[in-house]
Fold each of these.
Amino acid sequence: MAMIKDLATVNAELQEQKERVDTVDFKMVTFSLAGKDYGVDIMNVKEIAKADKFTYVPNAASFVRGVYNLRGDIIPIIDLRTFFHLPLDIKDDGQENMLILRIEDRVYGTIVDKIDKVVGINSDTIQPPHPIFGDINIKFISGVVEKQGDLYIILDVIRIFTQTDEEKQKPRGQVMQDVSPEAYFVPAAAPSQADSESALGFIKESLLALKHFAASPLNEEWLTRRFSDWAATRTGAELQFKNEADAAEFLVPFYSPCSGKFWDDDYAAAVKGILPDLNSNNIQVWNPGCGKGYETFSFVCILKSRYPDGRIKIWANDNDIMSISQAPNMVFDLDEVPEHCRGFMTRGRNGYSFNQTIKDSLLFEYHDILNENSLPELDIILARDLLSFFSVPDQERVIAGFVEKLKSRSIVILGRNERLTGHEWKAVGKDPVSAFMR
């Protein structure tokens, strides 16, 4: 009977162990490095991704591949193979497999050879690490586990990406296997010319991702000058944008005077001074991106002053339906209206509005400039600070459309820091007015 009791006890214990093993309380994303299987806690995995282009970071350690634009978030990319001194698996298509990890409040991209699957295990089955299980420093291994005949080395990614106080005291120029990547992400040396060019490339990519500002011949003169000013007061990681607010700060000097407002009298006079003599009294104007219509009203008053006998028509378009619907009926206090507009206003019950002659000259319509628009031949196009916020192919397509729509000796007025290039364009404006005649 005792023997039977002992066997029953053993069987009960085996069943208990089996039930414990079958209970999943730990999930990991598995991947391979140099032919061995690894895993990381799924709670630290934000997503998986593929990429083939990274922006170089000057003076960073060899395992820092650069930074990557992940849907507007600029994240550092660490090649775990290089970090652990493992051979690289070169992809034919150049696409790298990435685990996007969230460590506390930071996000990192990590390059691995191959991402496999999600594996669920019982945490009790994880064994302590031993040097025999991996080619990497044991301090970065939280344990090893066997699942269906496969042995997985579980990485301690929190330890990998978190510096100890002792590590922070080590010189950044001393690349060591047991120091976290965080210690080497911030460049230490002053940038060379090549480094500056790389940093400018990073700025361009960030502006496109964060503010839809596309670097091109249209704005490269300003962008180069602005980057020089930006770099003069910042070093290392400060050159880079941490968020959308940094990108917005960088772009502040780009915008033309009186952006989104009535033009002040000085800017209005400068615009009036570049307007050419026209061959016809029928003056056709296009103002895409007119917003709430403030600059449209300013411009039509300038045109009425410059061409008192002209029959003026302005097609004012925007893709903001709320703004475009409110523009024709705006009412103002007289003290908020610049002097060059006051002679064209009439007083009503609720305040001042533009007189009927001005209103008859304007047609506010909802329209996206990237779509075809049926317009007559034009004498003037007013498109300030608009084109730079399109992709480069769209910039080229819109400018080509300008050429088709404009009469000879007609002009385009762009933002203060935008330039039209090519033999068909002649600059006719002086700062702060950027204007070009065809």
Amino acid sequence: MLAPSGDQFEISGGGYRAVVTECGAALRDLSYAGRPLVDGFGLEEHSWGGRGQVLVPWPNRLTEGRFSFGGHDLVLPLTEPELSNASHGLVRWAAWTLEEHTAHSVSLTYRLMARTGWPWTLDLHVVHDLSADGLTVTVTATNMSPEEAPYAAGSHPYLCVGSGPVDQLELTLPAATALRTDDHKRAVGSEPVDGGELDFRVSRPLRSTVLDTAFTDLERDEWGRATTTLRDPRSGEGVSLWVDPTWTHLQVFTADGAPGARRSLAVEPMTAPPDALRSGTDLVVLAPAGSPGDEHSGSWGIRAVD
């Protein structure tokens, strides 16, 4: 029998262990010295709640599935019909092809073919690699079409420290701006977090804060990395997620009202905000195939905090 998420690719290195799945190139499991770092899903389950999935060629919501690009007026299927949104891209449930599997690394590929509502073909490549520095995930897209193609990427890991809830955990989130949303979870503006409920630039407990919020204006270190940390002040143990400069936004989600509510915290790297295909904000434009700029690549990662 085949697991609901397809073939399983286990890797290990530097004290870390991970499992990546054929379905969606999803990160099903990640641990350090036996301690879970992500709240994934079981071998007998599919990836519920977006757990560990790759979100390409757009992350988050696309209002009514409608956008225009390069002279095309396009409509994509509504995968969140109750809110009239096309959500989280086109490859979440695709069967990815194994390119290479070593003891510490696995590389998967998928060719996203042109289709109704998406008239471009993209070659996608995702590498999960483990070392003493933790997990590094690199997502690459190459335009195979004869015309420019729009592109944005995201990933959907849920960070955990212990079995939850996250209320007593301390969050450090290096973001100066939060996006406001309407009842359909669509971005309708932005505001500084200064001193408010959404200001986690200085580490503090989550307590009862409800988050399903995109953040931007990320504070970065000398290498251009922005790092979010979830930590248990009682044990000192925690988990950090870093993003390189290609990831401009972080969606943070406490999953209130959903299965697994508040037992973990989704911290989702995004190269663009919600509705980027409509607004063009931070949208990547891939050059025609074979031209300079026809490829985009970005990395993010997770490591244990002791």
Amino acid sequence: MTISHFRITRFQFARDRVIGDSQVRADDANVAALELVSETGDVGLGFIQTLFHPLPDQAEIEAVFENEVWPTLKGQKAIGLVHRVNRPRGGNQRAFSLPFHEALQVALWDLAAKQAGMPLHKLLGSRRDRVRAYASGLDFHLSDEAFCALFSHAASIGYNAFKIKVGHPDFKRDLKRLDLLQQSVPKGSLIMIDPNEAWNSKEALVKLTEIRDAGHDLLWVEDPILRHDFEGLRTLRHAVNWTQINSGEYLDLPGKRILLENHGTDLLNVHGQVTDVMRIGWLAAEVGVPVSLGNTFLEVGVHMAVALPEVEWLEYSFQNFDHLVETPIEIRDGYAYAPDRPGHGLVLSEEARKEWARPKRLDRSQLGAAPKNIRLPLDLL
């Protein structure tokens, strides 16, 4: 039952649309699958991802992993490693040279749950198997036509909550996008906005007031100002009593704790690091702050979402990643469903390994056509 070896498979492919926000944009995907294999043949799967710069060649990824991570895993049992608490002092408190952190946590929890013979969400203590999903466009760089087409499609397949990107230098454009969204989805839909820290606290108050006065009701505004401006976030929470502040996305685990201690958010935004999410989720529950699951790779966050008591929402952004696994997470009628399969339920597709593996780094011009996105019509965008 101990971990005997690992596999890394590097992928690089075009996205089916430009994604991004007020600060960033990307039109390609740079991903590597991490598989931790036990002596009995069980496999724990996680994904290493960079957003804006290609990963190095597969051989280099393997060499870094073997040097920095593998000595702590070899011959160990996954169920013990997921509960291990390290001493965060001095040189021990540092990032890996490559972004292994999330992939490692997901792969270890997948392997631990498989060896326990349980779906991951049940191992984490779930009492339900589904959570509400909202449609998030990552839409800042889309044309108005593509923006409307994306959200109209989302509404047509059962979503009733939608999040758009704002924070444009011309605030009239933000207001126009909200008007277009209102025209594209049913009346009474829930609306969220995300400036991605484009504003300061007073600017956020002025603009949120103008959005309200223009007739747009918001369920929440996400990351309106700088992540470490705890005083500004707390002040904004009290000043903007007609909507909620959703923050924490850009903070690490200690940063999220400080955010909660400073009463800087109405909802705590977390992502895909299973151990970190459960730890901060327990703390958020103790102080009565709801948690929202932001984008997680291939929606693996559904397991944490249904296991934590304060989670109502999971973000879904229609990214073309589903071809990487045999069976993606089911999302239907505005709900994401946690699989009943052992582990997190995602298994690397052998067809994807054959067709889409790119051991050597390619130029963007060499990527060719994007993999088909099975959740979007071919001619939508």
